[in-house]
């Protein structure tokens, strides 16, 4: 059983409503009904003697009293978390809830294996996972919606975070398994530029990395023969496998296709795209043993 003796669930509900900007969002994050969240907020308002939120049809906002409580709530919850972590460590208890925030690619290709391994070792742990881009993952960490974040960009304000390298991924050039280039070690950059290519959508991490690399070579995506723009690595792989063109995706997403030979990864001469993924925690928060255990299993999943 997770040690909860010190935690006032009403304060957690209040902090989550304020962070999420809605009762619905708070209910979803805390796995409670909206009615239960409303009841806890009302109970807290009765105790502090005033309204904590102003409510209208479109949004909720903190009152002056609510802002005062919110300014203290994070520190109080941090102390709760520190006490819980120390007590759990003392009793060697690895059970309870683990909250992860991660990027889309890691959520699809890495986290299921790590979560499965964790559940095999400890069936009492309950895992929740927030998925989005790197900024979203760091925001979840900052707003106490996650215990640990896995992202492709390190945080800008390092004094508030503890970041360590998770692993290095590569964006690779892919062709169908029966393509003439499939058995070559590398293709010329000019040949790459002339090939009908399928790319990810604007704003994706993969596309942004390709754009930066093209700029470093004093060229741009305008020089490529882009025949299709798709919204996921799976869609790009499927289109390439069907013969619609060549593509560029994360090597992380290619394990099955490289193993069965349906796709081949080919190097482009003088054009290698690497990106780092990081494990990020808040510096001032203690590291719970559940987090340590999961990080170790996640590292094994990408080994």
What can you tell me about this protein's structure?
- Keywords: DNA-binding, Transcription, Transcription regulation.
- One of its GO terms (molecular function) is DNA-binding transcription factor activity.
- Residues 1-63 form the HTH lysR-type domain.
- It holds the Pfam family LysR_substrate.
- Belongs to the LysR transcriptional regulatory family.
- Among the domains are: 1-93, Arc Repressor Mutant, subunit A (Orthogonal Bundle); 168-275, Periplasmic binding protein-like II (D-Maltodextrin-Binding Protein, domain 2), CATH 3.40.190.10.
- The strands form 2 sheets. Strands 3, 4, 5, 6, 7, 8, 9, 10, 11 and 12 form a 10-stranded mixed beta sheet that branches. Strands 1-2 form a two-stranded antiparallel sheet.
- The longest helix has 27 residues, at 64-90.
- It has helices at residues 9-20, 23-30, 34-48, 64-90, 104-109, 111-121, 134-142, 189-194, 205-216, 233-241, 255-260, 289-302; strands spanning 53-55, 60-62, 96-103, 125-132, 148-151, 161-176, 186-187, 196-200, 225-230, 246-250, 263-268, 273-282.
- It has 303 residues and is α/β, with parallel strands linked by helices.
